[in-house]
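Page 47, continued from p. 46.
Same chain as before, 355 aa.
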Amino acid sequence: MEFANQALADADRYTAQGIAGGAYFSAVDAARQASLGLNYSLLERDIQRRGEYAAGKALREADISGALDRLGDELLAAAPAGAGEAASLLEAWGYWTVATRLAGEADSLIETLPKGKTADGRLDSIYTAVWDYTLATVALDSVRDALELGQALRGEPVREPERLPELAEAYRRAAEANLDTIDVVVIPGLAKEWGVSAEEALTTLRQSDVNYAEADAAVSAIDYLRNSLEPGPSRDLAVLGAALVAYAGSSASLAERYSFGAEYDDNGDITGYGNEKALANDLEFAKGRARIMIALAAKGRADAALPTIYYQSGNLLREGSAADKLGALYDYWTASLIGHVMAVLSGHLEPLAPR
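Result:
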């Protein structure tokens, strides 16, 4: 709740200064942290009053999965007129993919809760489900935000829609490579440090690192999107949206746990980095690349509001705490990714993969 209050204060301060990007993302962070705190507190109360199993069953009543199914139909029906609106739809699909995967995992945990008065593992499953449901709910709201933003954007029509599958494949492979690297070089060290098995370390990382949780969920959902949606631009946008979220999130998680060697206090908060120089260099490079990609997107007469919001947020976070600096890097990367896709769709840049 302390994190939520601080994020909310940041959102108010940025709003007063007219800094839309910083205000929005701070508000989302406040909602996420406050929702987790509230939901964990409500769960504790429910367990004390009715017991673990009854509290777990009560989670089913939220029907988050049903709301996501209805929103998915709305995404499929969307037909972006320009590259800016297409970028917002990609953002919406990315959030939707993450939310759907997390909600599905939570549904499965609740449906298979061990019964009995003292069932082993039941409490862990319930808490994991609350974490998943909460992140899914916040992501669901972000889907609606992205759709609303897209409706306000203007610009030239999309000129290169056939490039969408190429972009999706390139970013999917990059995201999977990042996650494989985390499995090989990060998880064994965490397991040793925490005194648990590799599988338990992986589960703990999923519940403590939002970037990793979202990336893992997005990668896992890509095959589902490919197999369940009809071929065409809507499916291509969905797969690319998931791939972009997976790449950005996995890159941030790998950077924190491996590339820069984040250092933590007893509460698990980042206090610094073992490789500060590398982080400073990457921040400077990522900022410059984001500016270039946004300029290329604008050159194609696309409304570059979305990548600009991320760029603006990165500039603010860069001057903040140790943890904020990693958030700045994530925002710069995301600004570059979105700007890159918009530049390709508007015909002003070749994609990562050849035709």
